[in-house]
């Protein structure tokens, strides 16, 4: 394994990925779209939810892990950013270019930023990798202070029992999302939902609160604080500037959230 700092700026490759209208419909259903939201679930009038782009670009952080930058079994998805440049078509193909951006030295761990660029979006994964720090690099920015003003709104977010088994069909088939034994191996009582599924589901709530269409999302951010289980009901609370946070009965699961709509 190379020193973590050696990966900074590394090109991870270009890839052209195609999809049919079945894929964004499956994505919408996996993150909680209702059957009566026809422009999310019916091919004749389909609008693609922007976080679907993250399923198309998932190959990039996977490439970095497979190349030996960090131990795949211990690294965790720390946060996610998405900037929307243009709507994704209901079906088509898109060429993406991926690179490693900053690599921060947190002492006992490293944080790798993986950026994927295309004509339709720019997406950045932040990967927290224990055991990869101590290479003499910059610690990077400090975590932003928690807001002290009370949220201006709150909504419940019920998660479907089958959310994880649907979402994994979009590419992330890690066993912890379906197999109880694999989940137990990471100390969880049952399979957990993908963090990106929770983040995308939250944008449906935020759009409804803002009086916006969820497909008009232009910017999305969020930090993953704790696991979520399919079938539970989460609490989404937010502010009028687009900031939001998500909690389960056990505490925060997403903080530093931001959803901006056109």
Topology:
Layout (H helix, E strand, L loop, with lengths): L10 E9 L2 H9 L7 H4 L11 H4 L2 H8 L9 E9 L7 E14 L3 E9 L3 E10 L22 E6 L4 H5 L12 H6 L9 H16 L6 E8 L8 E6 L4 E6 L2 E11 L1
Antiparallel strand pairs: 1-3, 2-5, 2-7, 3-4, 4-5, 6-8, 7-10, 8-9, 9-10
Describe the protein in words.
The protein has a ten-stranded antiparallel beta sheet. The chain has 262 residues and is an alpha+beta fold. The model has no long low-confidence stretch (mean pLDDT 95). The termini are far apart. Helices cover 20% and strands 34% of the residues. The protein is globular. The chain has seven helices and ten strands.
Question: What attributes does this structure have?
Answer:
34% strand, alpha+beta, ten-stranded antiparallel beta sheet, 262 residues
Supply the helix-strand structural class. alpha+beta
Radius of gyration: 18 Å
Low-confidence parts: none
β-strand percent reads: 25-35%
Broad shape? globular
User: Which whole number gives the mean pLDDT?
Assistant: 95
Taking the alpha carbons of the first and last residues, their distance comes to 43 Å
In spatial order, strands of the major sheet run 1-3-4-5-2-7-10-9-8-6
- Count every helix, treating DSSP H or I runs of 4 or more residues as helices: 7
- The helical percent reads 10-25%
Q: Largest sheet, described in full?
A: 10 strands, antiparallel
Question: What is the number of strand segments?
Answer: 10
SSE sequence, one letter per element: EHHHHEEEEEHHHEEEE
